[in-house]
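Project outcomes to date are best conveyed with an example. Our students and postdoctoral researchers have been running inverse folding experiments weekly, and each run begins with a structure described purely in tokens. The record below, which covers 339 residues, was selected by the lab manager from last quarter's runs and is presented without edits.
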């Protein structure tokens, strides 16, 4: 591991100034991803700025009925917050599905958004990887890609984004707030992650030296009737091979509003807007749910070993939306139910 400096941040302006003056500085929240990547040599920061003591650890109801979540809120506190569980149960379930209790106690909301792919070629510095070393190639295209992306990928990168939390945030139109030396700014989550294109090493639209300060969820009454489901290769905690956040409002058998977002199928949380468009105003039936899934997945481009994800995601859409049409209230999110 490369030697690095360490500074403990005491206020946001000082942190932003330090980030702007130190190009090799990185923000340290819980360290559950960054420190692992430092150990393997993928990340080599010259300075770590510990932000855990910044006053960004509150969850507040906004004046319009949404939620503002501070960047240093831990995943455990996020999942346990009563307003999160009441207003956005899919978000609480997604966080519980994401990691063990020990990791959730350390991981932060801001760090979760910035976590990097777990693709084996990215995490192995002896292998080529366009995301780690631009222009070196993407060996996953011809190699191990059973968990590779089926939506939005290119020949330059087929890695998937690992966040569970991000999938639920995408479904509910989250907005990321940040601060730089030039002032404050906001990015809708839909614009926060960049498309792969030919530059997979450029992952977010955050300006240089930016510090994430909060994530805001706008009011969404439909989110109170939402669920999250994650499919993984083993029952213990593992990264998804497919996941879905879904919310549904059905009136007199007709879909009044629907929210859908997919995980583990693209380089970013994937908002299924085409499926939402097909469903809105139509019947709330299994046949309609399947047709909407097919419309969204028509753009899928598969490799020899990840084509199963098309069927998997189709089945998840039908199963989740069918469950949400049932009259019983969604069960309280728990670690077991989030599997």
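After processing, the design step wrote out the following sequence:
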């Amino acid at each position: 591991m490369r030697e690095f400096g360490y500074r403990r941040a005491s206020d946001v302006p000082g942190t932003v100034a330090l980030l702007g003056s130190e190009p090799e500085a990185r923000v340290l929240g819980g360290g559950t991803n960054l420190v692992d990547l430092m150990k393997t040599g993928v990340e080599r920061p010259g300075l770590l700025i510990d932000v855990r003591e910044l006053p960004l650890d509150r969850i507040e109801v906004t004046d319009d009925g949404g939620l503002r979540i501070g960047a240093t809120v831990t995943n455990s506190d996020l999942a346990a917050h009563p307003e999160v569980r009441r207003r956005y149960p899919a978000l609480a379930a997604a966080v519980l599905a994401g990691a063990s209790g020990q990791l959730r106690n350390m991981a932060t909301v801001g760090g979760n958004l910035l976590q990097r792919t777990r693709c084996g070629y990215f995490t192995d510095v002896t292998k080529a990887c366009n995301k780690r070393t631009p222009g070196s190639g993407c060996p996953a295209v011809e190699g191990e890609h059973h968990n590779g992306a089926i939506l939005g990928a290119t020949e330059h990168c087929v890695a998937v984004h690992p966040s569970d939390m991000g999938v639920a945030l995408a479904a509910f139109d989250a907005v990321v707030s940040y601060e730089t030396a030039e002032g404050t700014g906001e990015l809708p989550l839909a614009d926060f992650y960049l498309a792969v294109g030919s530059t997979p090493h450029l992952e977010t639209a955050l300006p240089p030296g930016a510090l994430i300060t909060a994530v805001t969820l706008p009011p969404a009454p439909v989110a109170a009737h939402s669920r999250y489901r994650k499919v993984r290769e083993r029952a213990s905690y593992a990264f998804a091979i497919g996941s879905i956040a879904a919310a549904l409002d059905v009136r007199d058998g007709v879909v009044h509003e629907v929210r859908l977002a997919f995980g583990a199928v693209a380089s970013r949380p994937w908002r299924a807007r085409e499926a939402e468009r097909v469903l809105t105003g139509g019947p709330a039936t299994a046949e309609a749910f399947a047709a909407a899934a097919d419309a969204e997945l028509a753009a899928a481009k598969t490799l020899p070993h990840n084509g199963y994800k098309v069927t998997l995601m189709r089945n998840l859409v039908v199963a989740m939306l069918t469950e949400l049409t049932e009259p019983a209230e969604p069960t309280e999110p728990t670690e077991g139910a989030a599997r």
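The longest helix spans residues 308-324. The CA atoms of residues 179 and 211 lie 5 Å apart. The training component of this project remains on track.
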